[in-house]
Amino acid sequence: MAESSVEQAHVHAPPEGFIRKYVFSLDHKVIGKQYYGLALAAVFTGMFLSWLMRIHLVWPMLKIPGLELLSKAGAPGGIITPEYYLSLMTMHGTLMVFFVLTNAPFAAFGNYFLPIQIGAEDMAFPRFNMMSFWTTFAAWLVLMLAFFIPDGPPISGWTSYAPLSAVGKDAGPGMEYGMSLWGISIALFCIGSLLGALNFIATTLDLRAKGMTLMRMPLCTWAWFITSCIALLAFAVLLPACILLILDRHAGTSFFIPAGLVISDRVQPHAGGSPLLWQHLFWFFGHPEVYIAILPSMGIISHILVNSLRKPLLSHRVVIYSMMSIGFLSYMVWGHHMFLSGMNPTSALAFSFPTLTITIPATVLTLIWLGSLYGARIQINSASLFSLGFISMFVAGGVSGFFLAQPSIDIYLHATYFVVGHFHMVMGVASLFGVFAGTYFWFPKMTGRMMDETLGKLHFWITFVGTYCIFMPFHYLGLVGNVRRYQSFVDDFMAPYIGWHKFITICALITGAGQLIFLYNLIYSRFKGKPAPENPWNATSLEWTIPSPPPWNNFGGKHPVVYHDPYQYGVKGSKGDFVMQDSPEQVIVSGD
Amino acid sequence: MSSTIATPVNSQAGALHQAKRNSAVLAARQADRASRSGVWVGLFAMTMSFAAFSSALFVREGTMDWTHLVLPPVLYLNTLILLASSATLEVARRSMTASSPLASPDSGRARTWVFLTLLLGLAFCVGQLAAWRDLRAQGIYLATNPNSSFFYLLTFIHALHVFAGLAALVCLAGRLTAGHSVLRRTFFENTAIYWHFMAVLWVYLFLLCRMKL
Prior knowledge:
Chain A has 592 residues and is an all-alpha fold.
C-alpha cells in the first residue's frame, strides 16, 4: 500500500514558475497572504468611502474634487447626492463585513498559521483552498464593478432588505444592475467561504501532528476551528437566500415580494412573497457572521497576550469552552436584529433571552484575560498593545449590547447611531485590533523581517484614541434620537448636534490618516526591516520552530512531534522561561 | 502503522528509505481521513442549505397564493431509478472492500456495477428533464406559482449536486478500468457516501414537493 499511496498523499510537489508560486498557488501560506492583500485593498477602499460619508454628513454641499469622475449621476459637480450617500454606505458595509472582517482575521491568518500550528505540511485540500481564494477574489471584482457601471452601486445597505432589494430599478438608482452584482458577489463569496471552512475543519480534525491533541492546539487554532464550523452553517444558509433573491429579481418568482406592492407608482408584478423571510434567512447568517468576525480575533489576542504575559492564562480550557458556547449561542439569537420588523412580540422575547445569555461566555473570556493580567509583568510592544486594545474595545462596545438585547429599549435605539456605535466598536474595531495585533506579532514569521516598533506604537495610540473619539459619541447621538442611514442633518431637529458630527468627522479623518502609518510600516518593513530570527518573541507554538519565512513545505519534510500544552511560559526551560511545544524536555515550573 | 517490511536497518540508506516510506504512509493515511471528513462536512453544509430552502418553502406554503402542484408521474420512476443506482453502487463497493483494498480479483465485478450505477444516474437526469418537459407542456414554468418555483429550483440544485456525483463515478470507473494501483478504497467509499446522500436527499425533496403540509 505504501508505494502506491505516495503519489496520492496530500503533500504537493514544490511549486515551480511564477504563476504556481505566487498566483494560482496551492501553498496555504501564499493563499493566506493573498487573502491578507485582498483584505488590505478592501479595508482602505472601505475607509475611503467612510471618509466620503463623514465629509458629506457635515458639509453636504462640499465639492469633492474628482468624485464626479467616479459617478456622474451620483456626484454631479463633486457634490454627493442623497442616493449616492446610500450607495457609499452599502459598499462600505459590504466591503468591510465580508471582505475585511471575514477575510483578514479568519481566512488570511487562519490559512497561514492553522496548518503550521498543528504541524501539518499544508491544508487538507490545497486545490479547494486555491479555489476558495480565487472565488472570493472574483466576488470582490464583481462587487467593485458596481462602482463603474452607469447604474452605480446599490442603495440597499449591506443587509439588502427585501422587498426593495428584490424589485429592480423601481427601487432607485443602483437597484437595477448594481443590486444584481451585489447578489452575485455575495453568492460567490459564500461558495468561497464554504470551501474554506470545509478545508479548515478537515485539516484541524485529521492533519494534526503526533502528540497534538485537540486540547494542545493553540487558542487561535481553536478560534479558527470554531469559526469555520460557524461559517459552514452560516454561509450555507446565505447562499440559498442569495439564490432566491436573484431569482426574484431576474426570473419573475415571488419569494420575498408581497402582493399589491406599489413602488415608484408602479404595482409590482409579483404576489404572495414574504419580506420577513429574507430577514430571517439573512440574519440567520448575519448574526453568526458577527462571531465569524470576532472569534478569530479573540483567539489571536489570547495567543499574543499569553506570550507577552510570560505566564499561562487562568484557564486554557475555559477559554475554549467559552468560545464554543459563543459559537453555539450565535445560532439562537438572529431575531434580535428584527425587533422592529413586526415580528411576534413573544418571539422577540424568545430571542432576547439567548442574546443576554451570550454575555455570560463573553464576560468569562474578558475576566480570564483581565485576571491573567493581574500580577503579570506584561511586555509592552505593538502586538500586546493592540491585544489590550482589543479587550478595551470589546468591553466598551459589548456593554451597549446589554441595552440592545432588550426589545423594549431596542425599539427606541435600533434605528439610531447607538447601534452604529455598538457594532462598529465590538465587531469592527475590536476585530480589526485583533488583525493589527496578529500582523505585528506574525509579520516576522511571514516575511522574515521585523516591523518598526516605534511606528507600531504610534499607530496604536492614534487608532486607540481615535476610534474612541469616533464611536463613543455615536452612542450619545443615538440616545438623543439621531437616526441612522440619513445623509444629512443640517436643517432638521438634529442641527444642534451638528458640532458632534463635525468632531467625529475630524477624528475619522485623523484616525484614517493614522492607518497610512501602518501601511507605510508594512511596506517599509517588508523590504527594509530588521531581519527576523526564527523565534523573536520567545514563543512556544510550532510556527516558531521553523525558519522565518517558512519553506514551502513548512517543516522541511520533517514531522514535528508535540510534547506539551501550547503555552508553557513561566517555567524553567533550556532556552529561558519557556518550553516549546515540540521540545521533549520536562517542564519544571519556576518559582514554586 | 509500524514497519513490517524488512529492510537493512544497519544501512543508513535503508533506514532513510524506511523513514520516507513511513512518513509517506502516514501522510497517505492522514489524507484518507481528511478526505472522509471533507465529504461528511460537505454533506453537512448541503443539508444546511437544503434546510434553508425547506424553511423558505414552509413559510411560502403558508401564504394565500399557494397552489399545490400535481407532480409529473415520471418522478416516481426517477425515484426508483436513483434508489436502484444507490443499491448497485453498494454492490460494487462491497465487492471491492470484501477483499484487498487495492486492485483485487473482484475489481472486474465492481467495474460492471459502477458502470451500471453511472447509467442509472444518467437515466435519472434524463427522467428529471422529462419531468420538466411535462410541466412545461402544461404551461407551468418557474414563475407560474410559488410551488412550481420551488419545484424547478430544488430539482435544478439537486441535479447540480448529482452531476458532481456523476463526475466522481466517471472518475471511479476510469480508475477501475485502468486497473492501476492508485485506486484507493477511500475514494470509492467517499463516492458511495456522496451518492447515497444524493438518493436520500432526492427522496426528501420529492416528499417535500409532493406533500401539502
